[in-house]
Amino acid sequence: VEAVHLIADGKAPRIPQPEEGATYEGIQKKENAEISWDQPAEALHNWIRGHDKVPGAWTTIDGQVVTFYGSSLLGASVPAGQELTIKGASRPGLVTKNGLVVFGNDGKMVLVKNLQFEDGRMIPASKYFSSDETTAVELTEEEKKMAEDIR
């Protein structure tokens, strides 16, 4: 009550807030988002999820920086997949039909849905070992007419 009266009377003390530490900008740097693999699966999941979309949690695979997006904890048994060596990880990840499975130091699993490469290209993690084949998009007659109208 006393504080409210001081404010109402215009006599409340005013203490300016310091500028130091007044931003979150430093947290959002890409170099601060590298994944530390010596953690339990839940901590890995929280790290990846916490950096999704900006700046993106990343690691090194085959000498190139790869950013992980869309993680979830995986409670099932270890799925079948193709092994993928990840720098710093205690055991290789598995590229499965559902995405990339990575392991925490507790042996539990995290499923990562999407990967982005240094060149900006983003792919579903399940397609990591797929060749870079491109498929042509087939337009219906209505879509062809719309494309022509847009041109």
Structure description:
- This protein has helices spanning 2-8, 41-50, 141-150, and strands at 57-61, 64-74, 82-84, 93-96, 99-103, 109-117, 122-124.
- By secondary structure, it is α+β, with helices and mostly antiparallel strands.
- Strands 1, 2, 3, 4, 5, 6 and 7 form a 7-stranded antiparallel β-sheet that branches.
- A hairpin with a 4-residue loop joins β6 and β7.
- It is extended and about 70 Å long.
- It starts with a helix and ends with a helix.
- The mean pLDDT is 87.
- Our Rg estimate from Cα atoms comes to 24 Å
Note the run of SSEs as H and E.
HHEEEEEEEH
The separation of the N and C termini measures 68 Å
Unreliable runs = none
Q: Give the strand tally.
A: 7
Strand share of the residues?
A: 25-35%
Q: Which secondary-structure class do the elements indicate?
A: alpha+beta
Number of domains: 1
Task: Give the SSE map.
Blueprint: H1 2-8, H2 41-50, E1 57-61, E2 64-74, E3 82-84, E4 93-96, E5 99-103, E6 109-117, E7 122-124, H3 141-150
Antiparallel strand pairs: 1-2, 2-6, 3-4, 4-5, 5-6, 6-7
Domain Formyl transferase C-terminal: 29-131
Protein name: AL1L2 dehydrogenase
GO molecular function: catalytic activity
